[in-house]
Amino acid sequence: MNETSVLIIIIASIFTANILLSNFLGMCSFLACSRQLSTAIGLGIAVTFVLTGTTGLNYIIYYYLLKPIGVEFLSYIIFIAVIAAFVQFVEMFIEKFSPKLYYALGIFLPLITVNCAILGASLFMIIRKYSFIQSVGYGFGAGVGWAMAIILIAGLRKKMGYSNIPQPFQGVAITMIITGIMAMAFMGFAGMVTM
Q1: What are the backbone angles phi and psi of residue 66, rounded to the nearest 5°?
Q2: pLDDT by residue (tens digit) across 159-190?
Q3: How far apart, in whole angstroms, are the C-alpha atoms of residue 42 and residue 40?
Q4: Domain layout of the chain by residue ranges
Q5: What does pTM read for this prediction?
Q6: Can you give the C-alpha Rg of the chain in angstroms?
Q7: Please, what is the end-to-end C-alpha distance for the chain in angstroms?
Q8: How far apart are the C-alpha atoms of 155 and 20, rounded to whole Å?
Q9: DSSP letter assigned to residue 65
């Protein structure tokens, strides 16, 4: 069993092993929903909640259901089904309590289901042999790291709206360049905490 502290796992998954900036998982919704800061904040919170919840649920299902009966090969299908059900719950909750955010997120809210960062976190927890608490901590940290990255890029994209960016670099091109620079900046934390 991995003896890494939960706090170290959370800090590492936010900074040194940011699921978006070091593994480049979850880029599609990151690029599409980072145009407005309010949408980025809402999606970041939703992704953090889904990552935290599904990582814990998938841990329980994998270690207490799939592994004991020897059907670990079904983990991908089961994990995706759990993620889809959890996202459906989050979607209904947001629609009920924040219709404005629900309509702002639009199609990208149900697309959290196929956000590869969420499935990636569940798979990383198995590969790294985390305990339940470590897995939930990792899911939370990965969600916070993903949310922080999308909020940062949304703020930068808003600032760039006032800049004179050359035509070939406008839109997704400059966003990818800035994301690469952010990834290099986060790599500066690499020696501090490892997972």
Answers
A1: -70, -50
A2: 888 888 888 888 788 888 888 888 888 887 77
A3: 5
A4: 6-187
A5: 0.87
A6: 17
A7: 13
A8: 17
A9: I
